[in-house]
Amino acid sequence: KSGFVAILGRPNVGKSTFLNHVMGQKIAIMSDKPQTTRNKIQGIYTTDTEQIVFIDTPGIHKPHNALGDFMVQSAYSTLRECDVVLFMVAADEPRSTGEDMIIERLKKAEVPVLLVVNKIDKVHPDRLFEIVSDYTSQMDFAEVVPISALQGNNTSALIDTLSSKL
Ligand code: GDP
Ligand code: MG
User: What are the boundaries of the region G4 (predicted)?
Assistant: First the structure.
């Protein structure tokens, strides 16, 4: 199995952390500051049966200047080049206008969109259920996968799930 997987989500939800965890090395820049990732950084995850090219995107946000606008366009152009989209959100924060903007765009995606609810280590299971229901009421996702990118919880299940979509 092989294909391109885009990781989308607003800044700070853990996209780079996930990519780093999966690749096992620091290939994307990580920081507490939003928008550290300025470019698409690709990691190629290879096993005996899979070759998955991950595309990290600069966080999607409302652009305030030319650089911001470039970064948002860059993230959206990735959508047209991939086979599966991972839409990553944070379990410990409510859905915001940032997410709503991305959801509107994702509704037009022609490839499967997986909802990845990250940072599950930070919330009670009841809260996780609430946040998942909130997102799934907005859009139909091909799959919903809760993970902790930081601790590596359920990340291999996510790889299996996305691999099944390729
Ligand atoms: P990005 O902007 O989406 O690429 O987000 P980053 O990967 O840079 O992560 C933003 C912040 O969230 C960093 O401080 C990470 O350590 C933290 N973070 C990412 N994933 C998790 C997680 O699963 N659990 C917790 N507790 N923190 C996380
Ligand atoms: Mg990043």
Answer: 118-121
CA 164 to ligand 1 center in whole angstroms: 26
CATH (domain of 12):
3.40.50.300
The model's pTM is 0.87
| Strands across the sheet containing 113-118 | 41-46, 51-56, 2-8, 84-90, 113-118, 143-146
Q: Which domain holds residue 112?
A: 2-164
Q: Is the CB of 8 under 6 A from ligand 1?
A: no
Q: How many domains does the chain have?
A: 1
Cα–Cα distance measured from residue 53 to residue 65, given in angstroms and rounded to the nearest whole number: 30
User: What are 69-121's pLDDT values in tens digits?
Assistant: 666 676 677 777 889 999 999 999 999 998 998 898 899 888 999 999 999 99
Model-level ipTM above the cut of 0.95: yes
57 appears as a binding residue in the annotation:
yes
**Closest atom of ligand 1 to CA, residue 56:** 4
